């Protein structure tokens, strides 16, 4: 079967023409479905539906075979579509149910299209070959469909930063191949599902290494059943939810855990002693809960870099032993935790130590920082304690804060350490070796001293192993590894700059990322999308210091300033706010008309039938019994009468398939009657299916079907025609002006040039 759609794809110069094509696209699709055509056609149809829904028209999407013709963003195997990668393309609209037609799909990656809204269709569950489902940073809402549990092959499920609500479907527990589960930054509520009886749950995910569920509204207990020794979980991220109850002692069963973030919930009770069974732990965040009982014993966590247990209500206790033994520590955050006694000098000698925050405790006596202390030490914050005296070597290179301690009472008031100078957002760019150059507006000087429009984004890193934001060697390492990734994907990148590190209020590290193009002075849309896509791959190699990150950016107008970023970072009062805040700026000036951009070339016109109500139509139409709603069956004689025996005067157009006649029904309604030539006729079933579909479509922008005639030697469709309407605005008018017709026999499109007088 051959389909020619060049006419459709190049026909966008007026809205009206585009609309007219819809009618025919629709006709064509009907035909395709009912003819149960070969698989390739099915994929083609599905892509046409997606294209219409999302309002995109990629220039490379021509011809009728997405696989043979190298459609951008589409990959195939054995002539079937296996991958759709359209990250950051400015797509708008919903995810049509028709996605299920792409039954060989393995990768669906639509991240960072803020305009994608509406619910995730239940038909996603029919894409049983899916391995990657990546819809991060869109605006999908509603519940995650339970059918997602049918995706047996799924390895990677990333829905972070949408507006998904309702509960986490227990069926996710059936995804036995799942490695990566990221639902961060949604509005998911209810309990964390665990299996019981025949109901699956997250405890069954024995191959998952990542549970990223932070920044939601999850409530109830962290279920003890969640943790089993069969798990290989590395990252358990549940921060910024509304979880209550105790931390279950079963957590000690999951020996593989590297990072645990349970901070910013309402967890209470004692921290289980099994925690120090987790000897691989690198980052532990328990802060801002209601934990009680003895100070947790972290002895044995010899690889721990970052610990934050601030703002809990532990029993007043002496400084624990592990302050003197956890040699890997970079960051110790124990604000407001009931600590008393002396801070051991050994702590400061840990060679990686960067930050010690012990504000609002009862630490007393002599603070001995000693002469041998970490050369990375940046901050010792002991505000509001009971420190009486200080031993410190000269020439210290870190900030010490002792305000609110007795030592600052009288004689030392003028000392630097008695005056607060906490300023952890003052880092900016690494020193530049460039000669001062004035770049033109919107351009930025790259690390290689060239002016260009960078691709900008914000990286929100879920956890890091360091806290000295002023040490640029971390960012240099990240830059290098990003460069390496971009080059391995053959992207034309000149240089990468990572700068403006700040902490969010939930201690996520936020970084500004600028990627500079090589050759051109800006990335074109293809390049920008590819960058976005690479960044969305969480398994991208990166230095060990950086945990997983979330990327935020959008297609902005040009000239976005760094101010936007800084403001975004500063105002985010809660993690959720920060995660959702659009702080990235994509300085990318589109010259839309000039070089046929990717998105928006088709004005936003919806397929009327792919609304939620009508989403079932595709499944209904295959193998259905025609049900004619409101479409009338005309006899040949009747139509003959209404058209003056199909007189030439009534002939308003013709095409390869046959002719169109103007007719007037007895009630005075004007109709256009499309009459098939004998050789163009389709089988009765196909014809009925077309009629059935058309009869269900009622939309102000579409000509609706009034009726049809199906007799031995005749097939006719009767459409509404409004002669008295405003011709300019009336679709019916455009409909005939640019009448493109299906040749029913071989589905070839033809343009019909007749104009109604
Ligand atoms: C999609 O899946 C549902 C149940 O999961 C099934 O009933 C339906 O037949 C499937 N549709 C197609 C087209 O395979
Ligand atoms: C958190 O849970 C408490 C009680 O369990 C409830 O009162 C509160 O409204 C919840 N907060 C949110 C944001 O859901
Ligand atoms: C520590 O881990 C081992 C191995 O999984 C387990 O057998 C043991 O019960 C755990 N201990 C605690 C206290 O959880
Ligand atoms: C902390 O745990 C270690 C090892 O599990 C143990 O030897 C030590 O006695 C514990 N310390 C306290 C104060 O319980
Ligand atoms: C502890 O709580 C105070 C007051 O709510 C807050 O300002 C501070 O940032 C919290 N500390 C940490 C480390 O989360
Ligand atoms: C910066 O970090 C690197 C990597 O951890 C470390 O080797 C170096 O000593 C640090 N430099 C300073 C000045 O802290
Ligand atoms: C502080 O320590 C110094 C030297 O160790 C000592 O001379 C001084 O008396 C101490 N001051 C107080 C108030 O303890
Ligand atoms: C303080 O740090 C800066 C930069 O990290 C370094 O150049 C300087 O030598 C350090 N000073 C001391 C006294 O360690
Ligand atoms: C976009 O940029 C890439 C690399 O610079 C180039 O190969 C490609 O042809 C460009 N595409 C368009 C449509 O200009
Ligand atoms: C998303 O698609 C892009 C290609 O467009 C790919 O490079 C990237 O790795 C994908 N992301 C994930 C998480 O698979
Ligand atoms: C993501 O990156 C990893 C490591 O570079 C690579 O193996 C994997 O294929 C990428 N995923 C996709 C979908 O591109």
Automatic annotation (TrEMBL):
Q: Which residues cross the membrane?
A: 564-588
What are the alphabetically sorted keywords of the record? ATP-binding, Glycoprotein, Leucine-rich repeat, Membrane, Nucleotide-binding, Repeat, Signal, Transmembrane, Transmembrane helix
Signal peptide, first to last residue: 1-36
Q: Which GO terms describe its cellular component?
A: membrane
Parts forming coiled coils? none
Please provide, alphabetically and separated by semicolons, the GO molecular function terms listed in this UniProt record: ATP binding; protein tyrosine kinase activity
Per UniProt, subcellular location reads as: Membrane
Q: Which SUPFAM superfamilies does the protein's record reference?
A: L domain-like (SSF52058), Protein kinase-like (PK-like) (SSF56112)
Q: Where is the Protein kinase domain?
A: 646-757
Query: Which residues hold ATP?
Result: 674
In terms of PANTHER family, this protein maps to: LEUCINE-RICH REPEAT RECEPTOR PROTEIN KINASE HPCA1, RECEPTOR-LIKE PROTEIN 55
Q: Could you identify this protein by its name? A: Probable leucine-rich repeat receptor-like protein kinase At5g49770 isoform X8
């Amino acid at each position: 079967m051959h389909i020619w759609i060049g006419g459709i794809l190049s026909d966008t110069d007026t809205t009206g023409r585009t609309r007219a094509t819809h009618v025919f696209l629709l006709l064509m699709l009907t035909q395709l479905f009912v003819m149960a055509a070969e698989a390739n056609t099915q994929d083609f149809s599905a892509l046409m539906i997606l294209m219409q829904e999302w309002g995109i028209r990629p220039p490379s999407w021509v011809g009728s075979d997405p696989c043979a013709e190298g459609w951008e963003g589409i990959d195939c195997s054995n002539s079937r579509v296996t991958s759709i990668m359209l990250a950051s393309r400015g797509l708008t609209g919903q995810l049509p149910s028709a996605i299920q037609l792409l039954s060989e799909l393995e990768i669906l990656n639509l991240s960072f299209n803020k305009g994608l809204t509406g619910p995730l269709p239940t038909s996603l569950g029919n894409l049983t070959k899916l391995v990657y489902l990546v819809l991060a940073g869109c605006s999908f809402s509603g519940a995650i469909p339970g059918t997602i549990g049918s995706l047996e092959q799924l390895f990677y499920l990333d829905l972070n930063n949408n507006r998904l609500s309702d509960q986490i479907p227990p069926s996710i527990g059936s995804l036995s191949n799942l490695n990566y589960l990221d639902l961060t930054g949604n509005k998911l509520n209810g309990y964390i599902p665990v299996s019981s009886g025949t109901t699956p749950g997250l405890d069954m995910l024995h191959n998952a290494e990542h549970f990223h569920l932070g920044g939601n509204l999850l409530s109830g207990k962290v279920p003890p059943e969640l943790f089993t020794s069969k798990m290989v979980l590395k990252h358990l991220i549940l921060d910024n939810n509304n979880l209550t109850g105790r931390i279950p002692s079963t957590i000690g069963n999951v020996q593989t855990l590297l990072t645990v973030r349970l901070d910013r919930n309402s967890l209470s009770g004692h921290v289980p002693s099994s925690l120090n069974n987790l000897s691989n732990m690198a980052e532990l965040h328990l802060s801002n809960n209601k934990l009680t009982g003895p100070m947790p014993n972290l002895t044995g966590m010899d690889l721990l870099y970052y610990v934050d247990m601030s703002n809990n209500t532990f029993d007043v206790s002496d400084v624990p032993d592990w302050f003197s033994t956890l040699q890997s520590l970079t960051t110790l955050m124990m604000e407001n935790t009931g600590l008393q006694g002396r801070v051991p000098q050994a702590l400061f000698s840990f060679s990686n130590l960067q930050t010690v925050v012990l504000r609002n405790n009862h630490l007393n006596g002599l603070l001995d920082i000693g002469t041998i202390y970490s050369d990375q030490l940046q901050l010792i914050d002991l505000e509001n304690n009971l420190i009486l005296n200080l031993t410190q070597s000269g020439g210290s290179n870190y900030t010490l804060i002792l305000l609110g301690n007795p030592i600052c009472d009288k004689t030392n008031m003028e000392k630097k350490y008695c005056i607060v100078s906490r300023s952890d957002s003052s880092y900016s760019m690494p020193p530049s070796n460039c000669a001062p150059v004035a770049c033109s507006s919107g351009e930025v000087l790259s690390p290689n001293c060239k002016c260009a429009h960078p691709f900008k984004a914000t990286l929100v890193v879920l956890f890091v192993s360091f806290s000295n934001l002023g040490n640029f060697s971390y960012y240099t390492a990240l830059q290098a590894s990003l460069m390496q990734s971009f080059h391995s994907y053959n992207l034309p990148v000149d240089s990468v700059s990572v700068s403006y590190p700040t902490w969010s209020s939930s201690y996520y590290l936020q970084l500004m990322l600028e990627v500079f193009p090589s050759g051109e002075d800006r990335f074109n849309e293809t390049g920008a999308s590819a960058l976005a896509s690479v960044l969305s791959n969480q398994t991208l190699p990166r230095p060990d210091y950086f945990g997983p990150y979330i990327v935020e950016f959008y297609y902005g107008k040009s000239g976005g300033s760094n101010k936007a970023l800084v403001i975004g970072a500063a105002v985010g009062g809660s993690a959720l706010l920060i995660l959702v805040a659009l702080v990235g700026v994509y300085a990318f000036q589109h010259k839309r008309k000039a070089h046929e951009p990717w998105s928006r070339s088709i004005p936003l016109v919806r397929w009327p039938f792919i609304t939620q109500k009508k989403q079932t139509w595709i499944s209904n139409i295959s193998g259905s019994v025609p049900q004619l709603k409101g479409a009338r069956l005309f006899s040949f004689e009747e139509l003959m009468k209404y058209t003056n025996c199909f007189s030439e005067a009534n002939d308003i157009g013709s095409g390869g398939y046959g002719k169109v006649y103007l007719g007037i029904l007895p009630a005075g309604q004007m109709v256009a009657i499309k009459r098939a030539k004998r050789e163009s006729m389709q089988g009765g079933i196909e014809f009925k299916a077309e009629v059935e579909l058309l009869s269900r479509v009622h939309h102000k922008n579409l000509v609706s079907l009034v009726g049809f005639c199906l007799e031995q030697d005749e097939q006719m469709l009767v459409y509404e025609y409004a002669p008295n309407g405003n011709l300019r605005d009336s679709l019916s008018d455009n409909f005939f002006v640019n009448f493109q017709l299906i040749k029913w026999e071989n589905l070839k499109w033809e343009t019909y040039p007749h104009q109604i007088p």
